[in-house]
Specification:
169 residues, 4 strands, 6 helices, 4-stranded antiparallel beta sheet, Endonuclease I-creI, alpha+beta
Amino acid sequence: MIIDDNYKFWLGGFVEGEGSLTISIVRHKNSPCGFLLQPEFNVAQHKNGLNILNAFKILFLNKGNILKKSGSENVWVYSLKGVSNLNKYLVPFFSKYVIKYSSKYKSNEFEKFVYILNILGGKSKLNKNEFIDLVKLVYALNPDGKGKTRKRTLSEVLTIIKDGDIESK
């Protein structure tokens, strides 16, 4: 498979329609604030389009995974996780092949995502107030995300962080 600039632009258009940037907020009792933020890029495709998902894996130098989508026999998902992988592979790709041609909404979402990546990739640990600000931004990142809702409301997460109730569910 040859992935030249034309094909990368085609993949960029594909991402515009089928890709997603997400940041999961995961409970972690060893984290100072009780949660970890886990950024991720993914793109889903029917099994007939596995070659497209493989193209992303090749493009990103074999980083990421292609797995069957939970609860769906015929849909597969390419996923790239981790701040350093996303900064090294995804951000340059998005900047050159996706954002220049995407909707204002997608551009704003990408800018927030990169901002969060930069903070998470920073050398210093966040204090509680900085972490709270970041969590609020994560909740604002994609408020209309294809009907999906988060496990906890923003107020529930903030209460856990503020109270330091790391043991509760």
